[in-house]
Design a protein that fits this description.
heterodimer, A: about 140 residues, five-stranded mixed β-sheet, 5 helices, elongated, B: mainly alpha
Chain lengths: ~140, ~500
């Protein structure tokens, strides 16, 4: 049984270094590194950010990659910058953004990903209250 | 190459003197130094979290303090204590064989694999630690990272943060490389512990033990599968805890084995929460193996001040045996509680039926415990055939190891049963990792019995040759009687060294 396990490990090491696995992991890792650097060039150091994505796990990952450059916030009202990350080929990506009623500057930082960044401080300063035109009560400060 | 340099320069060199004092000529020495360095980095991370400052600042202070203590201990006491070790050339052979065995799984590091947990938990924690006290406290308390298990102990992220301090935060895979290299070190110590079972045996047995040490290193990677090289820490704590069991509960009692077992248990306790629980169980068992409680049914005289004092002193000694090595791990758990960190496993959601969770857990664990019947059979056969040899050589009673195995697995089982996560999802994501310790320990114990069996077979053959009046061709086989499974030297003169049944 010991010998069987030793043999299994030798085969496992070979399998991991096979060309298919190597290219798959290299692609994933390069995307991670690209997103890591993209955050650092998109927002200033110490910025309070809000991260969103159609894929929740991906948003979580982007929040983790922002350490220690930026400080992710759970609530968008507490953030100065909003970031949305998505696959470059997601069909309903624009729809997702419109649903959130954000107008973003969209950058294609990485080959397989779209990272969209919005300065929420500026957006709050220049935003027209959505209810003002129709005589309704304007939303509270900070609401987008 | 960079992670190897960080491992050697950043962790190995500061841990060299304490490792030398603890392991001397044992083959564990070379693998122990980086583990001690990582444990010192973990203590530095605890100080960063609890007091303030940065990791590098505390690491220098902790490393200097530990080295000064090791040097003073060596100069004052260490030289007087005679520790038995393998001859240096056998230690060297063991280290070389283990290195060769570990190179095979390490080839997979050419591929930049990062697992999901290493990404979300260990890399995140490493970057928080690298950011300094304020970033660390704010990050661990940030609800955005609530699913990143903020209460996990800091050994692996501290080592990775130290690597980032050396090399900058650019290369994220450095953290995975550091984890895998530390895992190799823990497996190296485990392999060395198996090889140390033959330190008073014949040359052929020693050669067999060296092969077994190399095999155990590969088996560790085999039972862990993809988790071992993608940055998961489960094999690291499992290997450190298994080494602590072999050194503290199987090998003969002695200051060297005790010291090494304590260091391994401390490393396991600083790696993961499961490691802390398992390390505490192992440390309790080691305490009672070294300082057994004796129950006498004979009529005793009325207790006087001296007997009460002796009684209190013994229990104080037992408490010290438990608390001193567990202190770094317990401090980490205490800090997490004090700051208010909580993992997602125990919430307020009402758990489903306990019986359902228990049966699901048993069903999920069963495929990963296929080695159990074999290990039980080997232990039984070994006890029936070689119990006298085992007792004469001072090896621990199998009950100690099996108690440690059962209690640690029981603790993991109870976590699944009383936890509040959805059991099917939880088991599907983790049971293959939480059973690594149980599997690895049993494989190591089988290897130990194989070494003992080889020695027993050689001793039987020698007896047959001697009875026939022939001169053995290989003097190493027939060796002098003290080379065989000789009685151990008394380790602690103040300790009762009765034969273990």
């Amino acid at each position: 049984m010991l010998a069987k396990q030793v043999n299994a490990e030798v085969h496992l090491a070979k399998w991991y270094t096979s060309p298919g696995w190597t290219s798959e992991f290299t692609r994933y890792y390069q995307l991670e590194e690209c997103e890591y650097h993209a955050i650092r060039s998109a927002v200033p150091e110490g910025a309070a950010i809000y991260v969103a994505s159609p894929d929740h796990a991906r948003a979580q990952r982007l929040a983790e990659l922002s350490i220690p450059w930026a400080v992710p916030q759970q609530n968008v009202n507490h953030a100065d910058w909003a970031l949305v990350v998505s696959d470059a080929n997601v069909a309903d990506y624009r729809h997702y953004l419109h649903h959130r009623r954000y107008s973003y500057m969209t950058y294609r930082y990485c080959p397989d990903a779209l990272l969209s960044v919005k300065n929420l401080v500026q957006a709050r300063q220049f935003a027209v209250p959505t209810g003002a035109r129709h005589g309704r009560k304007p939303p509270r400060v900070g609401h987008l | 190459m960079k992670p190897a340099v960080v491992l050697i320069v950043g962790l190995g060199v500061p841990g060299l003197l304490p490792a030398l004092v603890a392991a001397r000529r044992s083959p564990a020495f070379i693998f122990l130094a980086p583990l001690i360095g990582a444990a010192m980095a973990a203590i530095a991370a605890e100080l960063e979290l609890g007091v303030g400052g940065t990791l590098t600042h505390w690491y220098v202070i902790v490393a200097v303090t530990v080295n000064v203590i090791a040097a003073v201990w060596w100069l004052v006491l260490g030289r007087r204590v005679k520790w038995t070790s393998l001859p240096w050339y056998w230690s060297l052979a063991t280290v070389v064989v283990e290195f060769v065995a570990l190179v095979i799984p390490l080839t997979a590091l050419r591929v930049p694999v990062i697992g999901r947990d290493p990404n979300s938990i260990w890399l995140t924690h490493a970057m928080l630690i690298a950011g300094g006290h304020n970033t660390l406290v704010a990050g661990l308390k940030n609800p955005v990272y609530a699913f990143d298990n903020p209460d996990y102990p800091p050994l692996v992220p501290a080592a990775s943060a130290l690597a980032f301090a050396f090399d900058g935060l650019g290369d994220l895979h450095l953290s995975v490389d550091m984890t895998v290299l530390l895992t190799c070190c823990a497996l190296g110590v485990l392999g060395a512990a198996v090889a140390m079972a033959a330190q008073k045996s014949r040359h052929v047995t020693r050669a067999g033990a060296v092969v077994a040490a190399g095999a155990i290193c590969l088996v560790g990677f085999a039972v862990s599968g993809k988790f071992a090289i993608s940055g998961y820490t489960d094999l690291l704590w499992a290997a450190a805890a298994a080494a602590a069991v072999i050194l503290g509960l199987v090998l003969p009692r002695g200051p060297q084995n005790l010291c090494l077992a304590w260091i391994c248990a401390a490393a396991a306790s600083l790696t993961k929460n499961e490691g802390l629980t398992t390390a505490l169980i192992i440390l309790v068992l080691i305490t009672f193996r070294y300082l057994p409680v004796r129950i006498s049914w004979r009529h005793r005289a009325r207790p006087n001040l001296r007997s009460v004092g002796r009684f209190a002193l013994t229990w104080l000694q037992r408490a010290a045996f438990l608390i001193v090595p567990a202190l770094p791990g317990l401090a980490s758990a205490w800090l997490a509680r004090r700051i208010g960190l909580q993992n997602a496993f125990f919430g307020t959601v009402a758990p489903s039926a306990l019986s359902g969770r228990a049966s699901a857990t048993l069903t999920a664990m069963e495929p990963y415990l296929k080695v159990l019947p074999l290990a039980a059979a080997v232990t039984l056969a070994g006890c029936l055939a070689m119990n006298a040899d085992r007792r004469r050589a001072g090896f621990g009673n199998p009950v100690w190891l099996w108690a440690g195995w059962a209690l640690s697995l029981g603790a993991i089982f109870a976590t699944y049963v009383y936890g509040t996560l959805k059991i099917s999802l939880w088991l599907a994501n983790s049971v293959d990792r939480t059973t690594i310790f149980a599997q690895l320990l049993l494989y190591a114990y089988i290897a130990f019995w194989l070494v003992l069996g080889l020695e027993g077979a050689l001793a039987g053959r020698t007896r047959t040759v001697a009875e026939a009046g022939a001169t053995p061709a290989d003097p190493g086989l027939a060796g002098p009687p003290e080379q065989g499974l000789a009685a151990p030297e008394p380790a602690f003169t103040s300790m009762p060294l009765s034969e273990e049944g």
